[in-house]
């Protein structure tokens, strides 16, 4: 191969290499941009148990969230009432959204639920989580679960621990 052809080939390889690096950088920037614009709703779709149960995260603000579950046959227990685990899962997702709203990954330390009124097929349940205390690494939340008539179905309380890890969404 002539010296001129060799030089052209090296320039071509060099240009291709720059194009590939630029493409990778653009892809990396795109992934970073996607993370920066992720919503809490996008993030919590990764909670597959809640997602498959049909829970919808309606609203998230700092220290507050609201979620909804339309009760269907698959949510009923043997007594034809809403299964307690379905209500707990609804409350737990609302807790997670409110607790993580500060930007740090939070996990439940302890949770307690009190069932007050039955619900059943055709009801729509709402869980509203409210922050009652926030410390350096812990928090305390109260969640009211109501039906479409705004009747109190259950109350849920939980304390959380915040890890030194950022969540991939902003409010």
Tell me about the largest β-sheet: 6 strands, antiparallel
- Distance between the ends: 60 Å
Read across the widest sheet, the strand sequence of neighbours is: 1-2-4-5-6-3
Continuous helix count: 4
Instruction: Identify low-pLDDT runs.
Output: 7-23, 25-31
Q: Average pLDDT across residues?
A: 86
Order of helices and strands, N to C? HHHEEHEEEE
Number of strands: 6
Computed over alpha carbons, the radius of gyration is: 24 Å
User: Helix coverage percent of residues?
Assistant: 25-40%
Strand content: 35-45%
Q: What's the shape? A: globular
Helix/strand-derived class? Answer: alpha+beta
Write the layout of secondary structure elements.
Elements: H1 3-36, H2 40-44, H3 48-53, E1 56-61, E2 64-70, H4 84-99, E3 104-115, E4 124-134, E5 138-146, E6 152-166
Antiparallel strand pairs: 1-2, 2-4, 3-6, 4-5, 5-6
Structure in words:
It is built from 4 helices and 6 strands. By secondary structure, it is an alpha+beta fold. It has a 6-stranded antiparallel β-sheet with strand order 1-2-4-5-6-3. The longest helix has 34 residues, at 3-36. The termini are far apart.
Quick structural overview:
The chain contains 4 helices and 6 strands. With 171 residues, the protein is α+β, with helices and mostly antiparallel strands.
List descriptors.
171 residues; 6 strands; 36% helix
